[in-house]
């Protein structure tokens, strides 16, 4: 309950919708409660933020897919839109290892840096929004995002 408003703000920064953010936090709590099975977890807050992040990203992708489908002029365009959302097996094989390395790199970051990086890169949050959310200065938000991105680039072997 102490982190509820922070979790809602985090979800809102990713989805852009306050109503959807409230629903996602509720769903995250239900999943967290089921996963923890009434045990005390060491990093319960971090775990809750991860659940919210995953649910928010899934929701954002789903909304984008739904938007493309509802904007389709005809059946063929709708089918093509659905096919474009489904990666081919070669792409899945090619990027699954890289995706796992990216997830690992994000997990290695300090919580505040990880949240700043995720909000900026996945949630399209502006630095001032990140600063307000984390209760830090805008230059520090910029530094955290830059450090997070640099860490991930190093782990993935990107230039």
From TrEMBL:
SUPFAM superfamilies: Sigma2 domain of RNA polymerase sigma factors (SSF88946), Sigma3 and sigma4 domains of RNA polymerase sigma factors (SSF88659). Keywords: Sigma factor, Transcription, Transcription regulation. Belongs to the sigma-70 factor family. ECF subfamily. Transmembrane segments: none annotated. This is RNA polymerase subunit sigma-24. Residues 101-152 form the RNA polymerase sigma factor 70 region 4 type domain. Pfam families: Sigma70_r2, Sigma70_r4_2. Signal peptide: none annotated.
């Amino acid at each position: 309950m102490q982190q509820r408003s922070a979790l809602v703000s985090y979800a809102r920064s990713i989805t852009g919708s306050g109503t959807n953010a409230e629903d996602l936090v509720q769903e995250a709590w239900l999943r967290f409660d089921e996963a923890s099975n009434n045990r005390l977890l060491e990093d319960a807050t971090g775990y809750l933020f991860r659940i919210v992040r995953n649910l928010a990203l899934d929701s954002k992708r789903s909304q984008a897919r739904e938007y493309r489908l509802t904007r389709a002029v005809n059946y063929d365009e709708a089918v093509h839109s659905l096919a474009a959302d489904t990666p081919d097996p070669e792409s899945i094989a090619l990027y699954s290892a890289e995706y796992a390395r990216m997830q690992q790199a994000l997990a290695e970051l300090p919580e505040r840096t990880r949240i700043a990086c995720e909000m900026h890169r996945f949630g399209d949050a502006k630095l001032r929004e990140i600063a307000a959310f984390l209760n830090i200065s805008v230059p520090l938000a910029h530094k955290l995002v830059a450090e997070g991105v640099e860490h991930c680039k190093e782990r993935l072997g990107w230039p």
